Each structure stands twice: as structure tokens, then as C-alpha cells.
Amino acid sequence: MSSRFITFEGIDGAGKSTHIASLTARLAAQGEVVSTREPGGTPLAETLRGLFLHSGMDPLTELLLVFAARRDHLQKVIEPALAAGKTVLCDRFTDASFAYQGGGRGMDLAVLSTLEQWVQQGRQPDLTLWFDLPAEVAAQRRAAAREADRFEQQDLEFFERVRAGYAARAAAAPQRFARIDASLSVAEVAAQILAVMEQRGW
């Protein structure tokens, strides 16, 4: 299988992690697969992730921090893996920045676009699986699963803005995005993902 860059997006509690693991196992039968995440994926980026999730900061600092982590991640993990013909599955990428910092925080989208160009040098995912879920359902799932980080502590209105941010990104790049109805059962969500992969011959 030739290299593919597949990202998993959605608000906290949408169930991405479960399906990244299963898709990694499925694609590993076809070739080498790298499973990674953002913020994170390298020692430096994981350190920045800790600050990002648990330290108070203003929205611009937050935005710059996540793009700094992304640059290191691209240089040290994503680009080398793709160049070697591997498939990369990534839990969040730049769409999350547009959704959380752009939609949720209200940051200027032109600033995000500039950072996207500088940091990524044209690199975009081949496929983005958007796990779409109402904010109130996601909140119920998070409450039952884990202690909230500083993002997960945000109110429903914040997450509705984030969801709208994802919807805007999907509308702008329909050839790249595949909307997954994350309100369904694990088996039904997995079937949606499989259908998307089959449509692309993957």
C-alpha cells in the first residue's frame, strides 16, 4: 500500500481513539502504519502537550504552542514516515486548530491560515475522518470516562462553536473530509469508517 496520511478529528468525547486502534490493526496487514497524535508525537511535542492541556495561557500563546508542536511532529515523524511509504494515522491535526482555536476561541482564521502555510509547507491529510457528535452527548461520554483537562472543562457553547468550526472546514474541503456519525454504536461507527476506506480503494 502506498503512503497515506489519515487524520481523525472531532470534539472531545467523540470516540476517535477507539477507532484509531482498530484501523491501525486493519491497515497494518497492508503495510507499515504509524499511529500518532497531536499535540504530541515527539518528545518535544509531548512536553508541549502537557503545557497545552494543563497550563493557563491566552489564546494566541495556545495557538503558537500547538503549531510549534506540529512543526516538530511533521519534521520528525509524519514527513519521514510518508517518505518511507508508510501510512500515518494521526489523532488530530490542523483542522483541530481551526475548530478549537478558531471556532472555540474566536481566533482570526487568517492568522491560522498563515501558520498553516508556514508550518506545513503544503502538507495536508489525504483523508480526514470527522467524528461528528452533539456537544451534550460528548459531554456525557467524557464525564463517564475521565477527569477533564482544561479543554474538556469548557461549556457546551464552546463545544458547539468547535463543532461548527469542524463543519466549516469540512464544507471547504469536501474531497478530503468524510463525516462519521459518532452518535451511533461502536460497531456502526466502525462500519462507516470501513465504507469510507473501501470507497477509496484502501
Automatic annotation (TrEMBL):
<dbReference type="InterPro" id="IPR027417">
    <property type="entry name" value="P-loop_NTPase"/>
</dbReference>
<keyword id="KW-0067">ATP-binding</keyword>
<keyword id="KW-0545">Nucleotide biosynthesis</keyword>
<keyword id="KW-0418">Kinase</keyword>
<comment type="function">
    <text>Phosphorylation of dTMP to form dTDP in both de novo and salvage pathways of dTTP synthesis.</text>
</comment>
<feature type="domain" description="Thymidylate kinase-like">
    <location>
        <begin position="8"/>
        <end position="193"/>
    </location>
</feature>
<keyword id="KW-0547">Nucleotide-binding</keyword>
<dbReference type="Pfam" id="PF02223">
    <property type="entry name" value="Thymidylate_kin"/>
</dbReference>
<dbReference type="GO" id="GO:0004798">
    <property type="term" value="F:dTMP kinase activity"/>
</dbReference>
<protein>
    <recommendedName>
        <fullName>Thymidylate kinase</fullName>
        <ecNumber>2.7.4.9</ecNumber>
    </recommendedName>
</protein>
<dbReference type="InterPro" id="IPR039430">
    <property type="entry name" value="Thymidylate_kin-like_dom"/>
</dbReference>
<dbReference type="InterPro" id="IPR018094">
    <property type="entry name" value="Thymidylate_kinase"/>
</dbReference>
<feature type="binding site">
    <location>
        <begin position="10"/>
        <end position="17"/>
    </location>
    <ligand>
        <name>ATP</name>
    </ligand>
</feature>
<comment type="similarity">
    <text>Belongs to the thymidylate kinase family.</text>
</comment>
<keyword id="KW-0808">Transferase</keyword>
